[in-house]
C-alpha cells in the first residue's frame, strides 16, 4: 500500500492527538499499524534520505492542522488536539482535508497568504482515515 498523502493523514493524526499528548514517531507507529504498512514502507525515506516519508507527511498534516488551531504543541516535539480539535473529533467527521480547514479563519488567512506567495493550489486528496 502506498503511504497516504498528508491530507489523508490529517484525520488519523487528529484522532491520535485527541487521545492525549503524543510525538510524531508514536503517531507514525499507530498509523502504520492501522494501515498495515510493511516494514519497508515504514522505513521509506524522502529523496533527500534524511527523513521517513510517513513522518514527513504526519509533520505536514500536523502543521496544517496547527494553522487551523486544531493542534497545540505544549512542548518541543509533542502535540495534542486543541479544544477546537476535540470539538471537531466530537462531530465524527468522515474526512479532513485542506478544503475543510478553510472553514477556520486562521487557516484560511495562512492559506491565502501562502498560495499568493507560491501561486500553488491544492486539491483535496482521497482519504485513508476510515481505518481510524
TrEMBL record:
List each copy of the Restriction system protein Mrr-like N-terminal domain by range. Answer: 6-89
Q: Which InterPro entries match?
A: Mrr-like_N_dom (IPR025745)
Q: What keywords would UniProt list here?
A: Endonuclease, Hydrolase, Nuclease
State whether keyword Hydrolase applies.
yes
Mention one GO molecular function.
endonuclease activity
What this protein is called in its record is Restriction endonuclease Mrr
Native species: Sphingomonas yantingensis
Amino acid at each position: 500500500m502506498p503511504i497516504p498523502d498528508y491530507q489523508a493523514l490529517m484525520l488519523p493524526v487528529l484522532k491520535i492527538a485527541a487521545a492525549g499528548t503524543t510525538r510524531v514517531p508514536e503517531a507514525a507507529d499507530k498509523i502504520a499499524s492501522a494501515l498495515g504498512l510493511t516494514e519497508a514502507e515504514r522505513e521509506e525515506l524522502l529523496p533527500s534520505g534524511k527523513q521517513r516519508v510517513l513522518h514527513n507527511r504526519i509533520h505536514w498534516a500536523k502543521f496544517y492542522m496547527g494553522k487551523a488551531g486544531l493542534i497545540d504543541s505544549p512542548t518541543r516535539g509533542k502535540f495534542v488536539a486543541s479544544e477546537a480539535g476535540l470539538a471537531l473529533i466530537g462531530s465524527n467527521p468522515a474526512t479532513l482535508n485542506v478544503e475543510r480547514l478553510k472553514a477556520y479563519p486562521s487557516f484560511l488567512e495562512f492559506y491565502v497568504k501562502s498560495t499568493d506567495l507560491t501561486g500553488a493550489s491544492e486539491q483535496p486528496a482521497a482519504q485513508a482515515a476510515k481505518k481510524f
